[in-house]
Structures are given as C-alpha cells and as structure tokens.
Amino acid sequence: MTAPATHTVTPRSRSRIGAWLDHHAYSFVASIGRMLGKPWATLLTVGVMAVALALPLGLWGALSNVERLAGDVRQSRQVSVFLQSSVDAGQAAALADTLRGDADVAAVELRTPDQGLAELHERGGLGEAVDALDSLGLDENPLPYLLLVTPAGDERLLADRLQSLPQADVVQHDAAWRERLDGWLRFGLRLAAVLAVLLGLGAALVVGNTVRLDIQQRREEIGVLQLLGATDGFIRRPFLYLGAWYGLAAGALALLVLTGTQLALRAPLAELAASYGSDFALRGFAPLHVLAIVLAAAALGWLGAGLVTGHYLRQTRPTDT
To answer: What is the domain range of residue 104?
Structure first.
C-alpha cells in the first residue's frame, strides 16, 4: 500500500509568487509616480475622459430623476368622474358606496363642490377669480360633485364603464399621456446607453493614446526587457495600472462635476416644484452607484491601456532566426 501523494510548495514557487506580488505592488505605486511626474499631460487626459464620462452619466442621472417624478404620477391612477349638476349630495354618496363594492375599484373619494372651490382657491392659482365669483353674490356653487376612483385593475376599462354611468357628466383619464411619457423615458434611457458605449469607447481611446506615448518614451527600456526574456505580462503590467489610474481619476472628476451641477440646480428646481405644490428635489447617485461608476471607469482605462500595450508588444516581440 502506497502513501497518497502530497503537493508541497517549494521555495522556488514561493519566490515566483513573491516576485509576482512585488512587481504588482511596484507597478501599482510607480504608475502613480508617472502620472504625477507629468501633471499637465495627466490633467488633459483625465479632463477629456471626465467630459466623455460625464455626458452619459449626466443624462442617466437626469432621466432617473424624471423617472422618479413620473413614478409618482404613474402611482396616481385615479379616474376623475365629474357628476352632473343635477346630482345632489345623497345621490353622490350613494353612487360612491355602490362603486366601492365593485371588484374593479380599489377606492373612491367623494369631493363636494365646496371642497373643489376651496382647492381652486388654494392651489389652482385662481384665487382672484373665485373671489370675483363670490363678489357677484351667487347663491349656489357652480361646481359639481366629484368622484376620485382608484382602479384595482385596468384603468382604461374602468374609465369606459364609468363614462356610461347615467350620473356621470365628464370622466377624465390620464393613461394616454402617461404611456407617452413612459415611451420617452425608455427612449432616453436607450439614448443614454448608446452614448455611454460611444463615449466610453472614446475615453478608452484617449487612455490608449496616452499610454502609447508613454510606451514610445520607454521603447528602449522595453526592448532591453524583451531581450532579457521578460514576459509580455511583466512588461504590460505597469501600463495597465497607469490606464486604471487614469480611468479612476476621470471617473472621480466626472462625479465631482455632476455633483457640482446638481448643487447648482437643486435650489431653483425646488422653488419651481414648490410653486406647483410639489416637494420634488434632485437626487444624486447612490453610494453603490458611485462605487460602480468609479470602478467601471478604472476598468475602462485598464482596457484601453491593455489593447494598446498588447498591440505594441505583438509588433516588437523578438523572433528567433
């Protein structure tokens, strides 16, 4: 009976792993030094990348805020049923109770003419007109009773049914324009995705061109390393970290620019929303989104540097004669 074979880590394998980790650490730190050693070139590269990243990110952020606002509208699926002027309070209450027992109706709110007049006075911007009506000495409120019906299922079918009620005068249903709004939002998100791909490719090319210039400056050093038997991975590694740092800095700068833009627009937009009786306010990116954006920008820089470096090494790799 033979003993089972065991795998041991030899000192030579340990030294290889240690050298691999040491070179990663050296490349990680040295790439920062190369960036800081060329501040103007670095600032130009990072700035161009940041603009390319900020455009689709800004569009995405704006659409996210619009979609959040539209979400409140979509949740408000009420169908407004204006009753005929001949319907009195008892008949309106009885109709509301009947609709509450309908399986297709989730809730019914009855609003009296006095409540409608008060709402017009407070929120409709028609306070002076309402006061003018009062000054005419009208004994009766001209507004009808109103039923706000919240559907439990398909609001279109329910609106058609409510329109056929003998007590109903006008039925208002806003599903059509909400569907158009959804369509525009879907188009905007698709446009943001297309811009992200195109401008992301442009950002990768910017990093690639910067890394290419750095490779040209170190051409002799790379040639010596190739003659000494250095692998492509060993030669490529510092440039990969350099591209990642470019992307990381560009992503952070793009987020900084977008945050400044959001702060500049938040106050006037809040005032505009308040004039319509809304508490809507701009929201920035969530922390998880910020992390994902920065990491994606770093990966984009890494990819651009890897493509350029790999192409150069394929062209200059020594061949046996």
So the answer is: 85-166
